[in-house]
Amino acid sequence: MRNTLLTLATVGLAILGLFLLTQAEGSSGLLSALTLIFIWGIAAVSLNLINGQLGILSLGHHGFMLIGGYVTALLMLPEKERAPFRTRLLSDWARNHLDLDKWLRGAGLDFIANSIDLKYVVALFIAGLAAAVVGVIVGAPSLRLKGDYLAIVTFGFGEIIRLLPNAPEVAALTNGPLGIKGIPGDAGTVWWTFFAFLFVLWFLSRLKFSSYGRAFEGIREDEIAAEAMGVNLAYHKVLAFTISAFFAGVAGGLYASYLQSVDTQTFNFFVTFFLLVAISLGGLGSITGAVLGTAIVVLVRIYGGFLEKPYPAYIGYLGGAVVMLSAFAFSAYIRKARRLRPVVETKHLIFGALGVALLLVTVFFRNESWMTQTVQFFGLRKILLAVILILIMIYRREGIMGRAEFSWKLIFGPREDVPTEEQRKQDAWLSNPDLNPDAAKKEDDDASA
């Protein structure tokens, strides 16, 4: 009961904060960042269902998002935007029949047709269903393939889906390379995406701790053992692909509304790459981690523009020194927190030595001409994300959260600063006099007393 009240209070505070933010002047940039975090967060937690909970590497998520984006665009495109000069490659049949407004009015559901928000609910649901159908098709090979082979298949599916809209045979439904523009932006606002994000979090959290979620995790840990325990592998794999594709389609529809346009370049493979970075950074298998990783990726992409501006060369050397020394300090902190010995390994000293060397070069050659000339590195934001991913894989493969989830117990529960007796028994170094001389001395003192 206490946790439920705390959760409701947090949601209420978030709503109040968003309301105040929407009323504040000059907050458009932050609102845009939050909107992207919510949209990409939906896509990330849906990808986490396959890659993290089910343990299958899927590289075709951008394809599911593209389907959702195109379906939403076709269904929600206003009448004036359907004119032939705006949608030159779209067929007359698609222009006249793929119209949600006509469908609803034909079914006598005028009260839905008269509301743009209710129409968007229906359009996003249909977009999710369309992506889910393709998810079933993509999930079918998972019954036979594993590991890298399945990753290649999902990547192939994703690229096929991305390239198909440009084919002349399909352009009659997608407007070809021109894409579809003029989509209403109502569902791409911060309020719409916030509540959609909350719903997806609630649904996937309930799913994770249900019997289905435990079956997914059982398949991830050991398929043979899971099958021996009565888990239907084929059913649960296809189910996970279908649910994941559904929410990816919804995220694609929201993203199309946010951009008010959709084309094949919007949903290229970099979308899946960023989502993979997000869930790997936050922690594979953790919904909380996927959200945290998404927030970091989006903020780096939006507010990392200063990294690609022209600077004197010594700024680059100084930045490299800070990154190397930070990596050295971070690794030492992690190993110390885990009570690993030695605290600093030889490979970690390399980062520290490089950091010190770059710092010394910056200090002693600061006024040299080659240090003061202006340089500019384009694409540094993507490089930074890739470097973060590499460092995470080296030093903390499980990501920031690992497989843990946020809970109120982490904040209000008892803190175990002192290890229990069981933990002491498991920590060999604590009882090893060569590695922990203080403990050995204490034992000798106790024995002599």
For the structure shown, list the relevant keywords.
449 residues, mainly alpha, two-stranded antiparallel sheet, 23 helices, ABC_transp_permease, cell membrane, membrane
Describe this structure in words.
Helix 11 packs across helix 13 (233-259). The longest helix has 27 residues, at 28-54. The strands form two sheets. Strands 1-2 form a two-stranded antiparallel ribbon. It has a two-stranded antiparallel sheet with strand order 3-4. With 449 residues, it is mainly α. The chain has 23 helices and four strands. Helices cover 70% and strands 2% of the residues. Residues 439-449 have a biased composition (Basic and acidic residues). It is found in: Cell membrane. Residues 420-449 are annotated as: Disordered. It comes from Oceanithermus desulfurans.
Mean pLDDT: 84
N-to-C SSE series? Answer: HHHHHHHHHEHHHHEHHEHHHEHHHHH
- The end-to-end span amounts to 51 Å
- Uncertain segments are none
Strand elements, count: 4
Overall outline? globular
The strands making up the biggest β-sheet line up spatially as 1-2
Percentage of helical residues? Answer: over 70%
Q: Count up the helices.
A: 23
Percent in strands: under 5%
Given the helix and strand composition, which structural class is it? mainly alpha
Q: Biggest sheet: strands, sense, closure?
A: 2 strands, antiparallel
* Gyration radius, rounded: 26 Å
Keywords: Cell membrane, Membrane, Transmembrane, Transmembrane helix
Organism: Oceanithermus desulfurans
Transmembrane segments: 34-50, 57-77, 120-140, 187-204, 238-257, 269-302, 314-334, 346-365, 377-395
Pfam families: BPD_transp_2
